[in-house]
Amino acid sequence: MTVFHVSEIVDALQGVRQQWRELQRRALEPGGRDLPAREALAEVVETLKGVLFPMRLGPPDLRQESENFYVGHALDAALHALLAQARLELRYKARHAETDHGEIDARALAAVRAFSQRLPVIRGLLDSDVLAAFNGDPAAGSVDEVLLCYPGVLAMIHHRLAHELYRLGLPLLARIISELAHAATGIDIHPGAQIGSAFFIDHGTGVVIGETAIIGERVRVYQAVTLGAKRFPRDAAGNLEKGLPRHPIVEDEVVIYAGATILGRVTLGRGAVIGGNVWLTESVPAGAHITQAISRHEVRAPAHERPGTAAPDAIATGAA
Amino acid sequence: MTVFHVSEIVDALQGVRQQWRELQRRALEPGGRDLPAREALAEVVETLKGVLFPMRLGPPDLRQESENFYVGHALDAALHALLAQARLELRYKARHAETDHGEIDARALAAVRAFSQRLPVIRGLLDSDVLAAFNGDPAAGSVDEVLLCYPGVLAMIHHRLAHELYRLGLPLLARIISELAHAATGIDIHPGAQIGSAFFIDHGTGVVIGETAIIGERVRVYQAVTLGAKRFPRDAAGNLEKGLPRHPIVEDEVVIYAGATILGRVTLGRGAVIGGNVWLTESVPAGAHITQAISRHEVRAPAHERPGTAAPDAIATGAA
Amino acid sequence: MTVFHVSEIVDALQGVRQQWRELQRRALEPGGRDLPAREALAEVVETLKGVLFPMRLGPPDLRQESENFYVGHALDAALHALLAQARLELRYKARHAETDHGEIDARALAAVRAFSQRLPVIRGLLDSDVLAAFNGDPAAGSVDEVLLCYPGVLAMIHHRLAHELYRLGLPLLARIISELAHAATGIDIHPGAQIGSAFFIDHGTGVVIGETAIIGERVRVYQAVTLGAKRFPRDAAGNLEKGLPRHPIVEDEVVIYAGATILGRVTLGRGAVIGGNVWLTESVPAGAHITQAISRHEVRAPAHERPGTAAPDAIATGAA
Amino acid sequence: MTVFHVSEIVDALQGVRQQWRELQRRALEPGGRDLPAREALAEVVETLKGVLFPMRLGPPDLRQESENFYVGHALDAALHALLAQARLELRYKARHAETDHGEIDARALAAVRAFSQRLPVIRGLLDSDVLAAFNGDPAAGSVDEVLLCYPGVLAMIHHRLAHELYRLGLPLLARIISELAHAATGIDIHPGAQIGSAFFIDHGTGVVIGETAIIGERVRVYQAVTLGAKRFPRDAAGNLEKGLPRHPIVEDEVVIYAGATILGRVTLGRGAVIGGNVWLTESVPAGAHITQAISRHEVRAPAHERPGTAAPDAIATGAA
Amino acid sequence: MTVFHVSEIVDALQGVRQQWRELQRRALEPGGRDLPAREALAEVVETLKGVLFPMRLGPPDLRQESENFYVGHALDAALHALLAQARLELRYKARHAETDHGEIDARALAAVRAFSQRLPVIRGLLDSDVLAAFNGDPAAGSVDEVLLCYPGVLAMIHHRLAHELYRLGLPLLARIISELAHAATGIDIHPGAQIGSAFFIDHGTGVVIGETAIIGERVRVYQAVTLGAKRFPRDAAGNLEKGLPRHPIVEDEVVIYAGATILGRVTLGRGAVIGGNVWLTESVPAGAHITQAISRHEVRAPAHERPGTAAPDAIATGAA
Amino acid sequence: MTVFHVSEIVDALQGVRQQWRELQRRALEPGGRDLPAREALAEVVETLKGVLFPMRLGPPDLRQESENFYVGHALDAALHALLAQARLELRYKARHAETDHGEIDARALAAVRAFSQRLPVIRGLLDSDVLAAFNGDPAAGSVDEVLLCYPGVLAMIHHRLAHELYRLGLPLLARIISELAHAATGIDIHPGAQIGSAFFIDHGTGVVIGETAIIGERVRVYQAVTLGAKRFPRDAAGNLEKGLPRHPIVEDEVVIYAGATILGRVTLGRGAVIGGNVWLTESVPAGAHITQAISRHEVRAPAHERPGTAAPDAIATGAA
Question: Does the keyword Zinc-finger apply (chains A, B, C, D, E, F) (predicted)?
Answer without folding.
Answer: no
